[in-house]
Structures are given as C-alpha cells and as structure tokens.
Amino acid sequence: MKRRWSQIWERLRQSFSVEESLNTTIDTSKTFLDAAKTLQENGESLELLKPLLQHSSSLLDVLCSPLAQVIGAGLPFVPMGIALLKLYRQSSQEQPTLADCVFIVSQIAYLESVKEILSYDINVNWDAHFQSDAAVRQQLQKLNDIELDYKSASETINCFHQSKLAQAFNQVLLARLASVNTSDAEILTERVAWNTHRYLVKAWIESGDVTKNVIQPSFGEWQKTQQKFQSIDEYLKSQIATKPEEQVFNEGFAFKDIYVPLKARNVDKNGKLDTKTEPFDLENWARKILLATSPNTQRQVMFIQGGPGRGKSVFCRMFADWVRQSLYPLWTPILIRLRDIDDFQPSLEETLRSRIKFHNFAQSENEWLTDRNTRFLFILDGFDELRIERGNNQSVERFLRQVGIFQDVCQDNKAGHRVIITGRQMALHGIDRLPSNLERVEIAEMDVELQQQWFDKWYRKFTTNKTLEFMDFLVKPETKKSCPQQIKELAKEPLLLYMLTAMHRDNILDINKFEQATETEAKILVYEQALEWVLTKQRADSRHPDLNYELTRQHPEALRRILAEAAVCVVQSGGESASMQMVKARLQQDDEAKELIAKAEKELGEEALKTALGAFYLKSNDHGGVEFFHKSIREFLCAERIKQSLEEWTELGRRGRTFNVDEQTMDWEIYDLLGYGGLTLEIVEYLIGLLIPSDEFRPLELFKRLENFYWRWCKGEFIDAPPENFPQEKMRLLQDQGIKQGQRQVDIYAGLNVMILLLELHRYAQGLDDLKEEIIFYPSGKPEENTSTAQLLRIINYGEAIQLGNFTNLVGQFLSGADLSGANLSGADLSRADLSHEIFGDMRWDENTTWENARGLDTAINVPEALKQQLGLS
User: Rounded to an integer, what distance in angstroms lies between the CA atom of residue 326 and that of residue 342?
Assistant: First the structure.
C-alpha cells in the first residue's frame, strides 16, 4: 500500500493528538534542537516532541534555519527518531509499518550525516550569505508528493544513496547550500547521501524491539555492517591520514609541509608524450576523471608514469588523503604499494583483498566489493616494482590485463570502483597488449612556478636570507650568479630539489664549484656532496653528533664502500633492485668489507647490513631486496666503484712488481665488475668525469693494461681456459642470485665493456698533446700496409651471437672518435652506431654492411668516396 509523505506526517500528528500550527514565527531550528537536548538530558517525553510535530512539515524543516546551530550543537539526532517511533507505537497501540519507520529514521539519519559532513570543513561559514529560506521550503513542499510503499522503503534501507528519498533530500540540501560560497555543493550532498546509510544502521541497532518485526535484516547483520564502517574508519585513520604526516627522511618536517601539486602531460596509446601542449595540474586531472559521469570515462584506468624522483609515491600519499578528507564516503581510498604484495592471486579482487585482509571490511571474500554502500578508489603505487619474477612479462601483462578487466566490470555491474596505477614508463615496455582503457599521463618536470611554490613552503620551515638567496640562484634567470644549466635541470625533480636545498641549508653544497662545471661535472659534484652530507651530517644533532655510526656501526668511508657495492649489485641485476643475499655475497669477496659487516652484525644483529643500507639512499622491502631511491645515485655509485678498481689496477707495485694488482687478479676483477651487461652511457659519463680530476688516474698505464686484456680476450683466452675459468665463475655467481646469464654472455659483456673503456681513453687522449701519440686504440687492430684487419668484424659477429644488434646497442654509442682505419667491416651491422669523427682510412665494406640510421657519417674523417656515394653523402 502506497502512502504519500504528507499522509504519514499527518498520521503521526494524529497519533500524538497534535494539530498543525498556523504560527509561522516559531523558530523551527530552536524547537528541534531544544527537543534533542531535552531528550538527551531527560529521556523520552511526548510533551517535548509535540512542539516539533506541531510547527514542522517534516524533520528536515530544520534545514531552513542557520546550519551553524545544527552543526555546532553536537547533539545526537538518532535518539530523537527512535523516541518518535516508540511514542508512536505507545500512543497508537499498533506497530509502526516499514514505511513509518523509514519515514522517520531516514530524516534523522540524513540530518546526522549533514551534521557530520559539514562539520569537517571548519573554514566555511555555512550561514554567511543565507537571507531567505524560500527556495528550501519550496523543495520541502515537494516532499509531500513522495509516495512510500514496502518496495521503495526496502530500497531505501538497502541503499539509501540510490533511493528516491535521497534524491529528494539532496534537492533540499542543495537549495540550502546555494547561498554558500562553495563549488562543491553537489559533491557535499552526494557525500551526505552516501554517509546516511551508517546512521540508518545505527538507528536500526539502537531501536531495539520497535523495529524488530519490521526490518528484514537481523540484528547480527546490522552489527556486522556497523563493524565494517568502523573498520573502514580505522583503516583511513591509521593507513591514509598518517601518510602525509610521515617525515621526509629524518628531517623534522613531514611530506605535507613541502609538497606542492605536480603537473603532468598526456601520453597517447602508443606511449608518445605530448610535448606540444602546456602541462596541466595532475591532481585536477585525477579528480576530474574520478568524478566524471560519462560511462566511457568511468571505464578508464588512470596510469601515472614518471621517472625516479618525480614524486609518484608522494602524490599517492597526498591524493589518497585528499580523497579521505574531501570525498569520503563517496569514495573510500585504498593505498597499496604493489611491491608489498606477496602473491598474485588468479583475480585482481583476490590480490587486492590479500593486501588488506587484516581489516574487517575486506574479510568477506568478494562481498566487500559488491556492497553498494561502499565504493573504493584503489591507488596502486609502483607498477614497476611488482614482486614478479624478472623477465616474466606474461605475469606483468596478466596483472595489468586484470586491472583493465576489473575496471570494465565495475562499470558494467554498477559497483563503480576506480583504479589509479603509478610506475615508471619502462614498466610498460615489452607488454604487447596494454589494456585499451588505460588513460596515461606522465609527471612533468617542476617548472619555475612549482619551484617557487616549493620554496615558499621551505621558507616557512627555514626562514632565513640564505633560503631566499638559494631560491633566487635556482629559479630566477636574472640572478647575478650564474646557475649552471645542469643544476637547473636537477632542480626540476622534487627529490633532487629537496637534496640540493637541504645540502645548501647545511653548508654542504658549495655553489662556487659549479660555476665552470660541465653538465656531467655538475651532477658529480651534487652527488659527491650529497653523499658526504647524508653519510656525515644529515641525521646529526647536538645529542647525537655521530648518529649514523650509532645506527650502523659503520664509519662514513665504510658506509660509502658498502653503498657502492650495493649499487654494483643493483646494476648487475638488470633491474631496479637486488637481493640482500647478493649484496652480502659481493661484500664477502672484500676482506675489509667482510670484517666491517661481521663486526656490525655482532653488535647490532643480523639486520645490521639492512640497517646500514636502509639509512641512506636505499630502501629495503619485505622480501629482502634493496633498491636506490634514485636511478642516478645508483649509477653514480656504480661508476665510483669501477673508478676505484681502475685506479687500483695501475697502482705501482713494490719489491720488483710492476703493479700492485697482478694480471690474473685484474682479469678476474674485470669479469666480476663488467661481465654482467653493457655499461650505460650515464655510468661511463660519471666514470670519466670522476677519473679525469683524480690524482690516482694514470691513463697510459691503464690503457696498456686494458688493451692487453682486450687482445687476449679477442683470442678467446678466457672462455677457452679450462674449468673453472673466469666467465664460468662469474656466470655461477650471477645464477646463484637468480640472474639468468650464460657463460658466453658474461664473456661477451666483459670484453665489450673493456672495449668501451678503451674507446673512452682513446677519445680523452686525442685531446691532449702529450698523450695523443701514446694512446691510440685500434678496435680492429693496428692497420698494416695493404692489409685490412678483420678483428672488429669478428667481435661484432661474436656479440651478435647472443642477440641481433647487440654490438651496436652496447658499443655503438661510444664509437664516436674511434680509429677504424684498415678495418674490414664487410657484412657488419653498424646501424644506429655513432660514427661521428671516425678515422676510416682504408676501411673495407661491402653491399651487406648495414649503415641504416648510423649517426655522424657526414662528419666522419676520411670516409672513402665510394662509401659516400653509396650512402648519398656526396
């Protein structure tokens, strides 16, 4: 049986023998609040409720009055609804119907929700511009025409925010908020509607036997629902609200204190970055997609990519908390670091649940995702850090495909959950079938505007002229002191901007050293000073002047040595992290480091090494792995470790020995350091930048020793040696750590990496009068009259044996300036190689030699005329 809203209200009045009052001067809000207060103090009384029934057309009439009174009173409204139901049953001598219960309790629950949601924003004056309640009363009048029956009442109980009552109540609240200076009125009303369900549940639980035979779900089921809401509240408080409050490293301030909103650029379906349009605010982009009503937009998985140090993880922290504060319970944020997932389940739903299963709200299998009264935003941070077996692209692809399917299903079944993923761009490489609903953006470098905002926040923490001077130095182009371009580039990344500014604050960063530095030299200066700062000063204070030693039992020199070995491990692992076992195994080869670790473990326990690494540029994970916060720091430390060995190999020996490190020892160390994969351009740039100013750099001696190794390698001396030879030994060490590298790969990489070092020494020497005749490297052998050399061709083919294009991929970018005189390159693949400034001499080639996309042939020296004609260069 259907009954209109006005009929139910009139029936309620009649049961209490109350007639409608014609007095319109009565303050409804005061009447309502007085009744609630008296009820709280003195218990249920028919007399105190009569004025409310007499002077109102509904309980929502209170919204015509100043909201500050409703919000500020702090009175519980649910007891008023329960008292009305009890007194109604008492006076009418009959059980209230389901429609009666819903009519009363839905209004009280909605008002409780209004009070709670509006009270979150203490900075808004909800009554500042409120002059007339005419628009509100107009919407209240429309309530009279609403009809309630068993079905619509049941729908209201099961999911209030989707009910017709919610739609009507929201219109009343929107009319009341129209005078408030806020652009979020619609979002506020949606939050109120979603939040009403928890107060409906509270009312059903507290109503006792009044509704026992009316409401279908059992008392136990209502309690479970209430516990679920409490569990969500606890999760948000402990896991989301705390994230912005966490300290930056061991500073005395939190992430929220220096965080500024980031900017981003669009990335198309092919992974191409849009550099033509201006960057946009990343948070606004995420909010717009999250709140979009278009079905196509609601199907999109938001993928935020960015390099190390760009602020992906900090964005996740801040955005998750913004959703908690500004959108909950319309959206409930769930923040998951993907590297923390132990096992990936057959479905994404099971995988997500496995990470938060210890919270009550996620314990009921997949029911927690089908409940229409909760809607989750899953923020999955660190796609590139997934705990999936290296090289298992099918597993990575399967997980990403699960996310895409999950998002589609959530749209189809109206569950509405959304997903944001963050990761480095490289994480998507090699995945052939990306989900079609992946919406990608890339975090842009910090521009001057964002840097200025960041410095404004930093200045609040460190209010000194020194801060202002450094800000001017970095971000103002008209500054008198010239800031090197490389430093400007480094300062565009949030992590490095913090490091630079913090070091400058602590008098560690010497700006004057950068004035004449090249880009690579500037970067080296930053990392050298940053390491010194982190290892000696960053955590020190008056009470703990040597806190790093207290934490790790390692002196700065030992810590730096350990960090460098860890960097080598991460680089050799071929990914972003290395296992703690690999780091320990590598340190065991170093007697001094081995002794240092043993001493620390004796004093601090077995976790001493993890403590030492985790205190600085590395972070550990739950599975015993370590990784660097920033890729460039890792590469710099790896270069520093290689530099150390290069210098040791040329130390003069004692007692008749030519060198302190004998040939056999050096041969093994070459395989150990360089037999893992190709040296990157960044590592080589750091290495040469570190070597040149070093007093221990002996270029001629180093060249002769490396060249001797190179020619012995070309002859197969090492791989043909009886077991266990050096390539086999290195292969075994790598495979023991789960790195799939064969004996041939180890041998090829060791030789090609030495070739790269020789090419770099050759290029360096050719710019110096005293060395250019002493250091000349012929990759194919020194040319002889009327005879061409085929050594380089054999090396190229040897490198191709494990992967086509291997030689040019590894060595090609270092060929600029090489002397290829007399080399026979017939059939060689030199595509994509950098051949600028080569000395070709009487080099031989044929129609099968591949030159496609080779760079620099137009500026190479002595390119044969026939070759120029073949390539269209003359």
Answer: 32
**H helix or E strand, kind and range, residue 206:** helix 185-206
Angle between helices 556-573 and 591-604 (to 10 degrees): 110
> Which pair of structure tokens corresponds to residue 137?
């009363």
The DSSP call for residue 417 is -
- The secondary structure element, H or E, covering residue 301 is strand 301-305
Query: What DSSP designation does 401 have?
Result: H
Sign of CA dihedral 846, 847, 853, 858: positive
Three-state SS annotation for 548-574: HHHHHCCCHHHHHHHHHHHHHHHHHHC
Scan for tokens 């199907």, then name that residue. Answer: 299
Report DSSP state, residue 204. Answer: H
**Which letter, b or e, does each residue of 3-22 get, where b requires 16 or more Cβ atoms within 10 Å of its Cβ?**
bebeebbeebbebbebeeee
Given strand 625-628, what is the order of strands in its sheet?
Answer: 577-579, 625-628, 618-620
The 10 Å Cβ neighbour count of residue 1 is 7
Q: Which DSSP letter does residue 783 get?
A: -
Q: Residue 730 and residue 714: Cα distance in Å, rounded?
A: 18
Q: Which two tokens stand for residue 4?
A: 């209109």
SS3 content of the chain, % helix, strand, coil (to 5): 55, 10, 35
3-class SS letters over 455-521:
HHHHHHHCCCHHHHHHHHHHHCCCCCCCCCHHHHHHCCCHHHHHHHHHHHHCCCCCHHHHCCCCHHH
**C-alpha Rg value of the chain to the nearest Å:** 36
> pTM for this one?
0.70
Comparing CA positions, the residue from 683, 673, 681, 677 lying closest to residue 812 is 681
Average pLDDT across each block of 10 residues of the chain; the chain has 874 residues. List them in order.
85 77 59 75 69 79 84 81 84 83 92 92 83 87 90 91 95 91 87 96 85 70 90 95 87 92 93 91 96 93 86 94 96 89 81 82 79 95 60 67 93 91 76 87 94 95 90 70 70 85 82 73 78 58 42 59 82 77 76 66 58 50 58 84 94 84 94 90 91 94 95 94 91 87 92 93 89 87 70 84 77 76 65 61 62 63 71 69
Name the CA dihedral angle for 304, 306, 311, 316, rounded to a multiple of 10 degrees: 20
Contact 489, 520 (CB under 8 A): no
Query: β-strand 438-443 against 280-281: which pairing, if any?
Result: unpaired
* Gap between the terminal Cα atoms of the chain: 95
Count of all residues that appear for the chain in the document: 874
Question: What kind and span of H or E run contains 619?
Answer: strand 618-620
- Which residues partner with 619 through β-bridges? 627
Cα→Cα distances 149→81, 146, 650, Å? 20, 10, 93
* Token pair for 383: 């796609």
Residue type at position 800? E
Amino acid residing at 332: T
Please state, as a whole number, how many other Cβ atoms lie within 10 Å of the Cβ of residue 692: 11
Residue 58 has a pLDDT of 85
Ramachandran class of 93: left when φ > 0, alpha when ψ lies in -120 to 50, beta otherwise: left
Asked if 185 and 178 touch (Cβ cutoff 8 Å), the reply is yes
How many angstroms separate the CA atoms of 270 and 621, rounded? 32
Cβ atoms of 844 and 821 within 8 Å: the answer is no
